[in-house]
Specification:
The protein is built from 14 helices and 3 strands. With 335 residues, the protein is mostly helical.
C-alpha cells in the first residue's frame, strides 16, 4: 500500500515496478534472465569445484578467481530470485528491511568483486614484472590477508548505507522504478535534503571502484612497459596472452558498471527502461561471463569444465558451494 507518511512507508513495504514501460513483456524478459542466472550458478559452482580438486590450479590467480566466484554466487542469489518472482508472479512487494538488506548486499559485494579483480591485476603485475619474487611476495598469508582486507573494506565502507536511508522520510511514493533495491533508486524517493548522503555515496564509489580501476590501469601500464622490453616478439605475445582472460574480466565488469553509475547520476534524459537494462546487465553478465572467460582461455579449466558437465547429474545449492569456496580458500591458503 502507498503510504502518506514516514512511519507507514518505513515500516510496511516498497513496491518494485520492474522495467518501466515493459511490464507486459516481463514474462518474456524473464526467460533470458533465468537462463543467465542458471549459467552463472553452474559456471561458478563448476569453477569452484575444479579449482578445489585440481592441485595444479592452486595458484594466486585462481584463488582470487574463486573469491570472485563466491561473491558472484552470493550477489546473484540475493537478487535474481526476487527479480524472477517479480517477472513470473507479479510479486512486487518487498519489506523495507529486506529492501535495505538487499541494497547492502548488492553494493558491498560489488565492491568486493572490484577488489578481487584488483588483486588479480596485482598478481599479473608481480608475475610479469617480478617473476622471480612471485612466490615470495604472494605467499599464502598475503593472499588470505588480501582477501580478508577486500571483504572487510566492502563490508565496512558500505555498512552506513542502510542506516543513511533507514530514518529518512519517504513522503513521495513507495514505488521503486527498478527490478531490485539500490541506493540511488531509494534516495530518489526521499523528500528531505540528501546532499550529504549522496556525497558519501560518491566518495565511497570513488574510494572503491574508482580507485581500484585507476590502480588496475597503472598495473597494466607497468606490465606493458615490461613486456615491450622483452627481447623477442614470441616472448611478448606469450606474456601478454597470460593477461587476456583478466583483461576480459575487467571489461565485462567495469563497462556496464560505469554506464550504470553515469546514467544514474547524469543520464536524466535516458529512457528509464534503458537505464534499468544497463543496471541489470551489470548485475547479471559478469557472474556468468567470468567462468566462461577463464574456461575458454585456460586449457586445464576447459577440460575439467567439460568433464564436470558431462558427469555431473545435479548441481549443489549455491549456499553449499559458497561454503565449499570458503573451505577451499582457507584450507589451502590459511597461514
Amino acid at each position: 500500500m502507498l503510504g502518506s507518511n514516514r512511519t507507514n512507508l518505513q515500516l510496511t513495504t516498497f513496491l518494485l515496478l520492474g522495467i518501466p514501460g515493459l511490464e507486459a513483456a516481463h514474462i518474456w524478459i524473464s526467460i533470458p534472465f533465468c537462463l543467465v542466472y542458471l549459467l552463472s550458478l553452474m559456471g561458478n559452482v563448476a569453477l569452484l569445484l575444479i579449482v578445489k580438486t585440481d592441485c595444479k590450479l592452486h595458484e594466486p590467480m585462481y584463488l582470487f578467481l574463486c573469491m570472485l566466484s563466491v561473491a558472484d554466487l552470493i550477489l546473484t542469489s540475493s537478487t535474481l530470485p526476487k527479480i524472477l518472482s517479480l517477472f513470473w508472479f507479479n510479486d512486487r512487494e518487498i519489506y523495507f528491511e529486506a529492501c535495505l538488506t538487499q541494497m547492502y548486499f548488492i553494493h558491498s559485494l560489488s565492491t568486493m568483486e572490484s577488489g578481487f579483480i584488483l588483486a588479480m591485476a596485482f598478481d599479473r603485475y608481480v608475475a610479469i614484472c617480478h617473476p622471480l619474487r612471485h612466490s615470495t611476495i604472494l605467499t599464502p598469508a598475503v593472499i588470505v590477508g588480501l582477501g580478508l582486507l577486500i571483504v572487510c573494506r566492502g563490508a565496512v565502507l558500505l555498512s552506513p548505507h542502510p542506516f543513511l536511508l533507514r530514518w529518512l522520510s519517504y513522503c513521495k511514493t513507495n514505488v521503486i522504478s527498478h527490478t531490485y533495491c539500490e541506493f540511488m533508486a531509494l534516495i530518489k524517493l526521499v523528500c528531505s535534503e540528501t546532499k550529504i548522503r549522496r556525497g558519501y555515496s560518491l566518495i565511497v564509489a570513488f574510494l572503491t571502484g574508482g580507485l581500484d580501476f585507476i590502480l588496475i590501469i597503472c598495473s597494466y601500464i607497468l606490465i606493458l612497459l615490461t613486456v615491450f622490453n622483452l627481447p623477442s616478439k614470441a616472448a611478448r605475445v606469450k606474456t601478454l596472452n597470460t593477461c587476456i582472460s583478466h583483461v576480459w574480466v575487467i571489461l565485462v565488469f567495469y563497462t556496464p558498471a560505469f554506464f550504470s553509475f553515469l546514467t544514474h547520476r547524469f543520464g536524466h534524459h535516458i529512457a528509464p527502461h534503458i537505464h534499468i537494462f544497463i543496471a541489470n546487465i551489470y548485475l547479471l553478465i559478469p557472474p556468468m561471463m567470468n567462468p566462461i572467460i577463464y574456461g575458454v582461455k585456460t586449457k586445464r579449466i576447459r577440460e575439467r569444465f567439460f568433464k564436470f558437465f558431462k558427469f555431473s547429474k545435479h548441481t549443489l545449492p549455491p549456499i553449499v558451494l559458497t561454503n565449499i569456496g570458503f573451505d577451499f580458500i582457507f584450507s589451502h591458503y590459511a597461514p
